[in-house]
Every structure is written in C-alpha cells, then in structure tokens.
Amino acid sequence: MHLYVALWVCGTLLTLLLGWQQRKCWRLIWQLNGWRGVAQQPLLWFLLCINLHPNSILAKVTRFRVLFKRPLAILIGTRALLYIDDPAGMECVLNAAECLDKTFMQDGFFARKGLLHARGKLSRAEELRVSPNQLNVVIEGQKWKLRRKQLNPAFNHNIVISFFDVFNSVGNQLIEQFASQSQLHGDAVKFKDADDMLSRAVLEVSCLTIMGTPTNFTQTDDAHIATSYKRLLEIIAIKTIKPWLQIDWLHRLLEPQLFAEAEECNQLLVDFVAQIVQRKHRNWQLRNGLDDAAEDGTWQRRIFIEQMFQLAANGELTLQDIEDEAQSMVLVSFETVSNTMMTALLCLATHKGDCQERLRAEIASVLHGNDASYVGLEQLQQLRYLDAFMNESLRLLATIPMNLRHVSRDFLLAGRNVIVPQNTMVVLDTFNMQRDAAFWGNRSTEFEPERFLQHQLDLEHEQEHCEQSPGEDTQRRHSYSFLPFSKGLRTCIGRRYSFFIMKVFLVKLLTHFEFHSDLKLEQLQFVEGISLKFRNADDILFQIRPLKHK
Ligand code: HEM
Ligand SMILES: *[C@@H]1O[C@H](CO)[C@@H](O)[C@H](O)[C@H]1NC(C)=O
Ligand SMILES: *[C@@H]1O[C@H](CO)[C@@H](O)[C@H](O)[C@H]1NC(C)=O
Ligand SMILES: *[C@@H]1O[C@H](CO)[C@@H](O)[C@H](O)[C@H]1NC(C)=O
C-alpha cells in the first residue's frame, strides 16, 4: 500500500515538474493556436513521428500544413518547435538578435565550424587572440558577428567582379563537356550526368575563387571530391532530421554502414582542403615577406583565402580556423550554386517554347552576334528577363527549402504579441511560403518569370507617382515573401556571386544548346536534402541539342 502511495506521489511530482518546465511552451501554443492548438498536439506528434525522413518530410509538410492554423507551435519534450511560413513572421525572426543561432539539429553538419554555423560566445582561447581594436565586437559575445565582419570584405563588389574571368573560362570548358555528352548520348542525357558535369565545373570555380587554387574538376574528378561533398550532404540531411544519429556511438550502432561512409567522405574532404590551405599558406608567407611594402594598397582586393591568411598573420585566426572556414565555404558555395543551376535547367527544359526562346532572343539582342565566349557584367545588367527567370526558378524551387533557428532568449513575435520562449526551435519554411497563393496569387505554383518583370514595372510606376495615396498597397508584395538567400542579419554572403556565376553559365549554355525534357514541373517529388533534391531525379532525361551557328 505504502509503495503505491509513494509511486503516486513521485508520479505527480514529476508531472508537475515537467508541466512547470513546459509552461512557457504551453502558453505559446495557447496564444498562437488556442484550445485547438493544445488538443491537436498528439496528432502533430504522430504526424512528425511517421514522417521523419528527408524523403517524405517536405512533401508531408506541404500536404498537412494547410490543415493547421499557422504559425504553428508543437511541444517537443521541454521545448517548443515553432513553424513559420508567412513573410511577416520571417521578417521578425530573421531580424531578431535572439534568433541568430542555429539549432542543435544542425550540429550534425559536416564542416560546421565556419561562418554558416558560427554562434554563441567566443571560447576563451579565441577571445585572447582577438586584437584590442575589435574588443567592442567581442563584448557583444557573438563569434558570428566577428567572423562575418572579417569575411564581408572578401565578397565585396570589386572582388566578385574580378571573378568574371574565372566564371567565363570554366564556363567555356563546361560547354565543351556538354557538347561531348550530347554527342555521346544524343537525346537522352540523364539528370545525374548533367548534374555531375555542372557540379564539377562549379567546384572548380569554387576552388579558384575561394581558395585561389586551380584544379581539373571540369575535366575529371578521379578522387570523387564532388560526389563526396554531395553524398555527405545527403547524410547530413538524415542527421539533421534524426538528431540522435549525431551521437557518434549511437550512429555507429544503428547504421554502421552509413557511419563508415560518412567518416570516409569526411576524411577525404578534410584532407583535400587541408592540403590546399597548407600549401597556399606556405606560398603566401614566402610571397608576403617580399612585398610587405605594397600591403596597404592591396588590402581591399583579397580573395577569401588571402583575407584569412592576413587575419592569421594578425593573430586573429589559427591555421585550423582557416581550414574549417575554407571547408565550409567551398561546400556551401559549390553545392548551392550547382543545385540552383540544375533547377534552372529543369525550368528551361520544361518551358522550351515560351521562356527558353524569349531568353535566347534577349541574349542575342545583347550579345550583338558575339559568341558568348566572354560574358561581362555590362551584358548581364541588360538581361532583365534572365534576371526574372532566375528569380522565378529560385522562387518556385527554393534551393534551401527550410531554415532553422534556435531562440537564445525569450522574444516577442511582433504583430502577434506572442512571447516565444528561450530554446524554441524555429522552422522557417521558405519553400512553401514562396509557393503559397496567399502571397503569390492563384497561379502561385506555375512557372511564370513575367511575374517578376511585372512587379518591377509596378514598383517603378509607384515611384513615379509617389505622391499618390498608399491606399492601393494591397497588391504590393511583401519584401519577405521571396527569400531564396534569406534576409536580415544572417543573409547569404554569396548572393551577388551566385547570380553572376549562374547567369554567365546560363548565357553560354543557352547560346550553344537547346534543352528539352518531357517532364512537367508538377511531377517533381521534393526531398529535403538541406538543399532541394528530387526523389525521381533518376527518371528525368534531358534532350540537349547543339544549336547551329551561322
Ligand atoms: C544559389 C546559390 C545560393 C543560395 C540559394 C544560398 C542560400 C543561402 C541561405 C538561404 C542562407 C541562410 C542560411 C541560414 O540562415 O540558415 C545562406 C547563408 C550563407 N551563404 Fe549562401 N547561398 C547560395 C550561394 C552561396 C555562395 C556562392 C556562397 C559563398 C561564396 C555562400 C555563402 C554563404 C554563407 C557563408 C552563409 C552564412 C552567412 C552567415 O551566417 O552569416 N552562399 N545562403
Ligand atoms: C589536368 O588534366 C590534364 C589532362 O587531363 C593534365 O595534363 C594536367 O596535369 C592536369 N592538371 C592538374 C592540376 O591536375
Ligand atoms: C530578383 O530578385 C532580387 C532579389 O533577390 C531583386 O533585387 C531583383 O530586382 C529581382 N529581379 C527582378 C527582375 O525582379
Ligand atoms: C485568379 O485570379 C484572377 C485575378 O486575381 C481572377 O480573375 C481569376 O478568376 C482567378 N482564377 C481562379 C481559378 O480563381
């Protein structure tokens, strides 16, 4: 009898304790979704549990989100998960100092010691290395802020402009690769093969622009560096969605093969970058000893790796920091750009008549009979339809479908008057927001680049008639309804870079080949692979025909 009483007391105490720990989460759920929010928790847990896989999560979120009132809060243990898919909510989170950090789910990321994942307080050792004139930055306690400040100069306008030579020379090699593939396989170039060619070319560009090191990747990749990066990212996606696999011994126990494969890829890529960085560093030190005098003048024009070496010379970074940062930068720059290029090719190939012809006509009118062997900034600036085309493909098929943030302190979700408690995980669903009819009209899932041109015309028109009352503003698009590169404090550092390389490549491809595919964009099955992947990619075939030149 005494035993039962003791058990009952213990149970009640534990429940009370848990409830106390969860009280802020329940308040959030109540404030956002009311009684229904509280009652639907078991359903949400069930849906989460059965769909916890990269292959299904994106499709299932797309299917089920409409059934719930959003923003949606889910209780997970003693934390809340907050799902946001509207522009106002995104704006609030992306600009909140409390939402700068990444979540623990992203800790399984390979190369997570770079800017992309930087967070929290500096470690003691790092603090000691920072030079005195940066102390103000340190006091705010954010490693990210300091890093971002250190790296911004490496992606300024002038530096990125200086990459056009690289974009063009590698782009020309890519054309040769496409030509030989289309000769070999005629009408049926597999998605996988096109992806492989593109990825290797973009990786070569990354090595040149990020690390200043020539490689042969566009021609060959015998060491399988590009494929290893891609494979590792797939594994990362699994580890993000199933965070318990981030515990090494558990991962090894549950999925020994996957674990071994991840270790192998990891080692290959760590060695690959370490070797380049170390060699570059030796050369840089030798050279730097010679032209110390020219120092001040060249400060403004350092590419990423040189900028890092300079910081190391000032004692602000170690060689290990540089290797970590370079690893992360090569990975993000090459994977995102090559994926976006593939989705752009899909959009081209499925819209041959309308938009591909229009693009080709625009390019022809800008090139004036030149053969696109060198595409410069002045030309890109005239290609407005190409710009709209890129935007539309980034809108409909967002390369980074979801974004996660950790809430480091309680904060107010403006507009809704709701306090989001500390430790909440915020999921920003860019993918579904960018296809939502509420923000993009009833043709929101159609591929229509014209919507961006029209929008620009509207904006210009509005500027001319700015004296008019802002009453008709209802049609105006929210500036956070289009977020392919995120926005706010941690916006993508490589946005300009990406647009330039992708447009240079596209102009070249479009002047040399005609693309076609029998696929319809609606048939794509979406996979959350950190970046957007397609489950039915193996079924996609491209017809790539060389264009006859006069
Ligand atoms: C089409 C190509 C690209 C897309 C769609 C893209 C998208 C994004 C997005 C959505 C974020 C925000 C991630 C988050 O908040 O969790 C981001 C961050 C970042 N991107 Fe990109 N990106 C692209 C290309 C690049 C390139 C080419 C580079 C480097 C040269 C780059 C470097 C970075 C870095 C360093 C961050 C982290 C910034 C920070 O946390 O301060 N990205 N990118
Ligand atoms: C690139 O490949 C060519 C032949 O395919 C070879 O002659 C050259 O040495 C390679 N260069 C590098 C840096 O590996
Ligand atoms: C495409 O999107 C960017 C923002 O990412 C914007 O600055 C640009 O004006 C857009 N282009 C068009 C044609 O709307
Ligand atoms: C879509 O919206 C347009 C104008 O906003 C309207 O004329 C049209 O009837 C709508 N179509 C459907 C299927 O709702």
UniProtKB/TrEMBL annotation:
Top-rank lineage group of the source organism: Eukaryota
Bilayer topology annotation: Peripheral membrane protein
Binding site for heme: C492
Cofactors that this protein relies on: heme
Coiled coil: none
Subcellular localization, as worded in the UniProt entry: Endoplasmic reticulum membrane; Microsome membrane
A molecular function GO annotation: monooxygenase activity
One Gene Ontology cellular component: endoplasmic reticulum membrane
Main location: endoplasmic reticulum
Gene3D superfamilies: Cytochrome P450
InterPro entries documented for this protein: Cyt_P450, Cyt_P450_CS, Cyt_P450_E_grp-IV, Cyt_P450_sf, Cytochrome_P450_Monoox
Keyword Translocase listed: no
Pfam family for this entry, one: p450
Keywords attached to this entry: Endoplasmic reticulum, Heme, Iron, Membrane, Metal-binding, Microsome, Monooxygenase, Oxidoreductase
Family matches, as SUPFAM superfamilies: Cytochrome P450
Function: May be involved in the metabolism of insect hormones and in the breakdown of synthetic insecticides.
Family statement drawn from the similarity comment of this UniProt entry: Belongs to the cytochrome P450 family.
Annotated protein name in UniProt: Uncharacterized protein
Origin species: Drosophila rubida
